[in-house]
């Protein structure tokens, strides 16, 4: 996730804050079982696209020193990105959450969601985390995991003003 530094470090459009108690929470697996009309869009099987060089706009975003990238992940992914030819540095939200709020160093996504954002009961399927992400047809659990893995660090970054922490 990228947050821009600059004269206006706080984003102007914040996502809606979820009320305590979970009212208004995003639809999860439980609600999906009871409302078949809320099923996710199923992607058709597509052949893998040929590998192309990064577009210049994406390359400039990735190399921009004014962009702070945050995520939830392990050291293996961090090492892979750092050793890439772009030498990307990505801050782990858990490190900042520990320093700023004394959340557990190895906190899960669900624990961070509850402690920082007040979103109770967010559980992530670890089997989805370690599943085959190269498969052409991702499961609902994989898509949900990927969405949470991207959106939760963004929400936490906004809540904790991580652009101030990582500077």
Characterise the protein shown here.
By secondary structure, the chain is mostly helical. The chain has a domain at 68-167: Ribonuclease H-like superfamily/Ribonuclease H (Nucleotidyltransferase, domain 5). Helices cover 41% and strands 6% of the residues. The chain is built from 8 helices and 3 strands. Strands 1-2-3 form a 3-stranded mixed beta sheet. Helix 3 links the parallel strand 2 (67-71) and strand 3. The two termini are 16 Å apart. Mean pLDDT is 65; it is low at 1-44. InterPro entries: RNaseH-like_sf (IPR012337), RNaseH_sf (IPR036397). One of its GO terms (molecular function) is nucleic acid binding. Residues 1-28 are annotated as: Disordered.
Set down the secondary structure blueprint.
Layout: E1 2-4, H1 29-34, H2 56-63, E2 67-71, H3 75-82, E3 91-92, H4 93-101, H5 109-117, H6 126-129, H7 140-160, H8 162-165
Parallel strand pairs: 2-3
Antiparallel strand pairs: 1-2
GO molecular function, one term: nucleic acid binding
Region (Disordered): 1-28
InterPro entries: RNaseH-like_sf, RNaseH_sf
Task: Give a quick set of tags describing it.
single chain; 167 residues; mainly alpha; three-stranded mixed beta sheet; 3 strands; RNaseH-like_sf
